[in-house]
Write a structure and sequence with these properties.
Strand order of the largest sheet: 4-3-5-12-6
Bound molecules: 2-phosphoglycolic acid
Radius of gyration: 23 Å
Distance between the termini: 55 Å
Helix content: 40-55%
Order of helices and strands: HHHEEHEHEHEEEEHEHEHEEH
Shape: elongated
Number of helices: 10
Structural class: alpha/beta
């Protein structure tokens, strides 16, 4: 069997992007050239790797196996490139990050600082939902991810790097606004806007109520942190939100934090990476920026 790196690169892009057209764009090739490479790969291994169902592209069982290996091989190759670039002292290299959408209120600022230190590095940060992050981590498509609720049961290392206290917010005219030491039972009388299923914030909220045997009355389901903020301001219900994500709304007096007993709920932000992953110097530098500097950087930003 004679599989070439070019075939693997083309197939890898098709498998990742689920599209020959987008793979061709990414690789700066024509679409027929990419198809040809994938066909040659199939000829070499004697099995099909993709199948078309309707307009979408799926991986066959063989395709899934090849994809797992192509990821690993190409990742190693990228690491090698980064190591060599570093040996040459050019400070370049590639860093692929993913962050849960809720981290959007701080992650870009950290990335800004990092960019200044490594101006010639090729860095991407996919700010996306939990499901997509889990897929990307499992497929080793990213060097590391920022999450509030690290997944369990995978071969992952999760390092907490910053507090993520969750508070209950209300519009300033809410009857509980300004009251002190509001008993938790009082929350049973309120309607809460909830995040989408799978959201770490929503999980924390449900666990909090369940543990204390409090009845949780939920109103509308909102698809993002931003939507919850807007919904609370519009008087649709209360919201449970990372405190640091509502700084501006508090300053502008569009929202207030309710002073409920035993609040905030204490959580953390984590950087999640594969256990035993050999980090490139660039990736290690970003991990260190998170674990050693993030708190200070964000305070002074
Ligand atoms: P999420 O935020 O609610 O968007 O999943 C991350 C978390 O706090 O777990």
């Amino acid at each position: 069997m004679h599989i070439t790196l070019r075939q693997l690169t083309c197939f890898d892009a098709v498998a990742r992007l689920r599209s020959f057209t987008r793979a061709a764009e990414e690789l700066h090739l024509t679409q027929p050239a990419v198809s040809m490479q994938v066909k040659q790969l199939e000829a070499q291994i004697g099995l099909s790797v993709t199948e078309h169902i309707g307009r979408s592209i799926h991986l066959t069982d063989a395709g899934k196996e090849v994809y797992a290996y192509s990821r690993a091989i190409l990742q190693e190759l990228e690491e090698l490139e980064t190591v060599l670039v570093n040996l040459k002292g050019e400070g370049g290299g590639r860093l692929r990050l993913a962050a849960i959408s809720t981290a959007n209120y701080f992650a870009p600022r950290l990335l800004g600082t990092f960019r200044q230190r490594f101006p010639s590095a090729n860095i991407s940060m996919d700010i996306t939902n939990r499901e997509s992050i889990l897929v990307q981590i499992a497929a080793n498509e990213v060097d590391m991810a920022i999450m509030g609720q690290p997944p369990e049961g995978l071969e992952l290392e999760a390092i907490p790097f910053m507090d993520n206290p969750l508070v209950i917010v209300a519009p300033p005219e809410h009857p509980l606004a300004g009251q002190r030491q509001i008993p938790q039972q009082q929350l049973e009388e309120e309607v809460f806007l909830v995040r989408e299923p799978g959201s770490g914030t929503r999980g924390a909220m449900e666990r909090f109520f369940k543990k204390r045997r409090l009845r949780l009355t939920t109103g509308m389901e909102m698809g993002s942190l931003e939507a919850v903020k807007q919904g609370v301001q519009a008087g649709l219900g209360l919201g449970l939100i990372p405190r640091d994500a509502v700084e501006m709304e508090l300053r502008l007096e569009r929202l207030v934090i309710l002073n409920v007993v035993d609040f905030p709920i204490h959580r953390h932000w984590y950087v999640v990476l594969h256990k035993g992953k050999r980090l490139t110097p660039l990736a290690a530098a970003f991990r260190d920026l998170l674990t050693e500097e993030a708190v200070d950087l964000l305070q002074t930003a």
